[in-house]
Amino acid sequence: MANFHLHYRLFPVAAFLLLLSFPLSFSHSQSDNEADQDSPVSRFQRYLRIKTAHPDPDYASAVAFLKSQALEIGLNARILEFVPGKPLLLVTWYGSNPSSPSILLNSHMDSVPAESSKWLHPPFSAVRTSDGRIFARGSQDDKCIAIQYLEAIRNLRSQNFVPARTIHISYVPDEEIGGFDGAAKFVQSKEFKELNVGFMMDEGQASPGDEFRVFYADRSPWGLIIKAKGTPGHGSRMYDNSAMENLMKSIEIMSRFRESQFEIVKAGEAANSEVISVNPVFVNAGIPSPTGFVMNMQPSEAEAGFDIRIPPTADPDAIRRRIVEEWAPARRNMTFQIIEKGPIRDYLGGPLMTMTNDSNPWWSVFKTAISEAGGKLSRPEILATTTDARFMRQMKIPVLGFSPMTNTPILLHDHNEFLRDSVFLRGIKVYESLISALSSFQEDVSSQ
Ligand SMILES: *[C@@H]1O[C@H](CO)[C@@H](O)[C@H](O)[C@H]1NC(C)=O
Ligand SMILES: *[C@@H]1O[C@H](CO)[C@@H](O)[C@H](O)[C@H]1NC(C)=O
Ligand SMILES: [Zn+2]
Question: Which H, E and C letters describe the chain, residue by residue?
């Protein structure tokens, strides 16, 4: 799951801390005894110990490890490289009916940095404590699903299950820095087109309760910078249309809009991720002096930056009009710049969301497979941040975001990220149910 802002701030610190953590990262906990050496949990731990955190993710080792696992299970594996140094591993289990649209399971190999000094256990040690918690950066986001996909397929193959539809797993780079050299390039490639993907699953989020969470859309991120110009003047003079006054008017109007959205959340009528969020992230104005700012001058320019997140249910053109007419109007001598960080509509102009009702036949297959695995689902949600799923939804491929972690605190990007071994193992069973159901699903041609 990506959080652009945080990364840039943490990079230099984290790089330094990573260097410091090297000598520590080989210590293992006592509960990892010999008997564990070749088990689903030990394979998960081996993957967690590969340092794929930014700013210097070791993709080569991750690809080599995952490829060796896939080959050992008897799957096909090939490496694609759309940008040098940023490999993508594509694993395939051919179905008996290869002309049917395939199933794609996606997982990103990279993770955000970790500040070792703030962790109970070194973030790349994958220590398992006596109560079963496996501590590692990436344990929730999203190396768990990477291994669970493979382990579920390993089990299905040992039960002689034969899929009808072909199943692919994509291990992609760079999701945490926007996915532009990873999933975005992948979906545009001829290799992707040849996969003929009918349905895809991507990462979700942990659930503190005992219901699984499922995500049918991301919010699209925009960076908005508004700039005001105005007559400069002495600090003592009162006059109309200074740059600061023009900017402050906009900030007031935007604050009222922000409040109107937040009120809906506070009233319990929508989740945070279902409204348009508008948060100020910088204000830049004033004339610098050696001790701070010149205090008796009103500047001729002022600007402010906002992080805006747009749910698929909102109309981006209406927001654009609001910016032009109210937030940065030319009549107030204002200009603006929108930095779109990814797609906001699918290629036919529709909203970037996957239906979670009877209009999407995959939805009922998914739901049934979860309940057959003994799981309960909470109400489908929009993710507050972004994932690679947006690039596939842009191609109008139905994608559900799902990481089978119940009774687990949400620790992605946080210190002390961990996953309990029992939760990890139950997830494998859930994917066995999902993969067998999805790969056997036959669309009812007569109803189309
Ligand atoms: C916009 O700029 C023009 C030219 O400098 C000025 O005459 C006008 O008063 C300004 N208007 C506002 C609202 O700032
Ligand atoms: C499914 O949901 C969409 C969006 O809410 C709605 O437009 C559509 O009519 C629904 N279809 C069915 C079959 O319920
Ligand atoms: Zn993630």
Answer: CECHHHHHHHHHHHHHHHHHHHHHHHCCCCCCCHHHCCCHHHHHHHHHCCCCECCCCCHHHHHHHHHHHHHHHCCEEEEEEEECCEEEEEEEECCCCCCCCEEEEEEECCECCCCHHHCCCCCCCCEECCCCEEECCCCCCCHHHHHHHHHHHHHHHHCCCCCCCCEEEEEECCHHHCCCCCHHHHHCCHHHHHHCEEEEEECCCCCCCCCECCEEEECEEEEEEEEEECCCEECCCCCCCCHHHHHHHHHHHHHHHHHHHHHHHHCCCCCHHHCCEEEEEEEEECCEECCEECCCEECCEEEEEEEEEECCCCCHHHHHHHHHHHHCCHHHCEEEEEEECCCCECCCCCECECCCCCCCHHHHHHHHHHHHCCCCECCCEEECCECCHHHHHHCCCCEEECCCCCCCCCCCCCCCCEEEHHHHHHHHHHHHHHHHHHHHCCCCHHHC
